[in-house]
Every structure is written in structure tokens, then in C-alpha cells.
Amino acid sequence: MRKFWNWVKDEEAGIRTLYLNGIIAEESWFNDDVTPAAFKEELLASQGDIIVWINSPGGDCIAAAQIYNMLMDYKGNVTVKI
Prior knowledge:
This protein has helices at 36-43, 61-73, and strands at residues 5-10, 15-21, 49-55, 78-81. By secondary structure, the protein is an alpha/beta fold. The chain has a single domain, classed as 2-enoyl-CoA Hydratase, Chain A, domain 1. The chain has a four-stranded mixed β-sheet with strand order 1-2-3-4, with no helix packed on it. α1 packs parallel to α2 (61-73).
């Protein structure tokens, strides 16, 4: 599966950085979109503060809102850079 996001974890600092690149979609037809279900699974796979770098041309506004809500509900600090 080709994903348009990549997690990088700094073990010492306890911070994860998420690089999010690609079209945001509700479902992945070709396994190459950022989908809310796949995003949530990886978001909750670890703990600590998160820095999110977004490079996306857009996509499904409902899927984007779901991802936004997940980041807002996340227990750690989340910093988003566009």
C-alpha cells in the first residue's frame, strides 16, 4: 500500500512528526489516498506531542473534517504547519 503520509518519531523528545502529502479522501480506491480510518489507526498507535506538516491540494471536505476532529481530540499537543 502506497501512503501519502509518513510518521517520524523522535524517541528522545517524545515527539512524532507527521508528513501528510496527497489528496484527502473518504475511501481509498487505489490505496494511495489519506483516509480517516487509516489516519486514526496510526494517530492512536503511539503517544506524545505531534507536529503535522500538510502538503495537500485538498480533497473530500468531510474526510478532512474527520481528520481535523481526530487531531483536536488527541490527548497530546498538536502543532499543524501548512
